[in-house]
What does this fold into?
Amino acid sequence: MHDPRDHIVNKIYHVEVLPPKQDSTKLLIDLDLFKEKYLRVLNSGYCVCITDNAMGIMAFQGHEIIEEMSLYVHPNQVMIHLNTFHTKADLDNILESCKNLKIESLLVITGDGSDRLPKLQPADIGESDVESVTSVELLRYIRRSYPNTFVLGVAFNPYEPPEHEFAKMKRKIAAGASFIITQPIIERNAQVDQLINEYPTIPVTVEAWMSKKLSLLSDAIGYEIPADTEYDPIETLKMLHEVYPQCGVYLSLVGFKTQYDLIKDVWK
It folds into this structure.
């Protein structure tokens, strides 16, 4: 398996690509667009990161699209998000498919639920001392069921109360996490600084918000950003590289028509 530090040492961006929604009215067009983005990221030498029912909206799974469209996989350049809103059968199918496809990197998160999505129960994955399944229990299950198969990462939310988030991070590391990706930040963040100081041997990747729509960021993080705030995603990306040179960078909501060619000149 690859070392997650390689992405930082070799300046490999993580680039988020959303799979088509299951209720799409233009599915074939959406699939072709996904394929175009996927191949463009891989051919650039970056890591394509495929979300799992982001914001609780039902979408096709990354492994399904890769298999259906016969897309090639480089173990060091594909990351699948995996949350707790699945049936046990679907969870095992996802993990088995990722293993067969040689997808090594999994970002394990609790995830956003909805009334349409099932939820793993503790008994499903051999847990008896918790009331609900979080990323911690899911990490333990994957590590136990697929030893030496996946490189497991977790999320860090710098907008949560520090004592709560750092206690949870301690449990995530103990459960098998070997890299961390933050929620989006648009400036230096005291909690991210603390995270880096507390886990100097764990690779940390900061998420860069690449959309000018800060209202969407406010919705995503639950932190109000004034609507009149001026925001330049490329300049913010440059700033994050300067402030956090020891970190990787995850790009969310990248504009492939307007921004993608620009980011290649930022991290040199």
